[in-house]
Amino acid sequence: MKKILANDGLSGSGIKKLINYGFQVITDKVPQEELISYINTNQIDVLLVRSATKVRKDIIDNCPSLKIIGRGGVGMDNIDVEYAREKGLKVINTPAASSESVAELVFAHLYSGIRFLYDSNRQMPSSGNTEFEKLKKAYAGGIELRGKTIGIIGMGRIGIEVARIALGLRMKVIAADTFVGKANIEVDFYNGQSINVDIITEPIEQILKEADIITLHVPAQKGFVIGKEQLNMMKDGVMLINCARGGVIDEEALLEALDSGKVRFAGLDVFENEPAPSDKILAHSKISLSPHIGAATLEAQDRIGEELADQINEILS
Predict the structure, then answer these.
(1) 245: annotated active-site residue
(2) Whole-structure pTM value
(3) What is the mean pLDDT of residues 125-154?
(4) Which of 4, 6, 194, 289 could cross-link 46 (Cys pair, CB 3.0–4.6 Å)?
(5) Catalytic annotation, pick one of 131, 202, 256, 292
(6) Cα separation of 191 and 169, whole Å?
(7) Among candidates 293, 285, 290, which has minimal Cα distance to 263?
(8) What average pLDDT does the segment 146-164 reach?
(9) Tens digits of per-residue pLDDT, 2-51?
């Protein structure tokens, strides 16, 4: 019986599917420094990870029993993908499984920001019964998303899901993507009806100048996508969301822009220095925060687990 180590966990439905396929599933959380020894001792065939476990050359070179490395999610920057494939290992991921969940988190941060929920949820428990009218006045300047222009940087699967939601909210959608010239967005409704909207991508500089809201959906990369220069191009009072990867926004430049009012607020699910974000970012009064939970819904985790199970079975059967 082939053995699968799901080192960062796996949904119950994914485990069940793998067992039904005839695999043994191990969900022990093995520390990074003990991983090579554990894999070799237990003759693990498949190593499944999420973002916590790193699969670098040392594991690839020293674990001859491994046949598959799987990433539950989209980005694979914690895996030496090309090196693994050169060594004959299969490397798989689940790029489509969490798109809806990440897109919904973008709008959770947006609604939190435009109605000051990120701050009122901090203040109400401590002073809501003594300073109710003061807080009511402080949070009275909310805005609506309807009619606002959202600029999506990166029109992959998640960017397309963000566009679907935005169109349903009657927002104007503009987008930039080096590799996508036109995206066809189909918006499905509960009654079986749908609409189709074509979005022609534009240069990123144009998006920065026009958008009321900018949301990033790009892979990890060297250098910033949004730095001081890009922030200066944006509208005054722009709103900025990053549920993509830490390090694509220059956080020092962002803090300056928030303090000056150039950026109205930011919503961050990812950070430059995970898992220890800067104290200045965590304490800032204009930032809505979450701890890298874009794909962390029950529905997404079920889809991820089941998709991994199907891919593993197809490769090893």
Answers:
(1) yes
(2) 0.89
(3) 97
(4) 4
(5) 292
(6) 17
(7) 285
(8) 97
(9) 999 999 999 999 999 999 999 999 999 999 999 999 999 999 999 999 98
List, in sequence order, every residue forming a beta bridge with 141; answer none if it has no partner. Answer: none
Contact 270, 292 (CB under 8 A): yes
Does the active-site annotation cover 274?
yes
73 pLDDT above the threshold of 90: no
- pLDDT at res. 264: 97
> Is-contact 230 260, C-beta < 8 A?
no
Query: From the candidates 109, 157, 245, 284, which is the catalytic residue?
Result: 245
Do 42 and 164 lie in one domain? The reply is no
- Domain of 261, in residue numbers: 98-289
Neighbouring residues of 277: CB distance < 8 A, sequence distance ≥ 6: 271
Alpha-carbon distance of 312 to 317, in angstroms, equals 8
Residue 122 designated active-site: no
Give the total number of structural domains in the chain.
2
What CATH number did the domain enclosing 114 receive? 3.40.50.720
* Rounded alpha-carbon distances, angstroms, from residue 53 to 23, 69, 105, 137: 21, 11, 24, 46
Q: Same domain, yes or no, for 208 and 309?
A: no
Which pLDDT tens digit goes with each residue over 106-122?
999 999 999 999 999 99
- Given the residues 86, 229, 274, 314, select the one marked as catalytic: 274
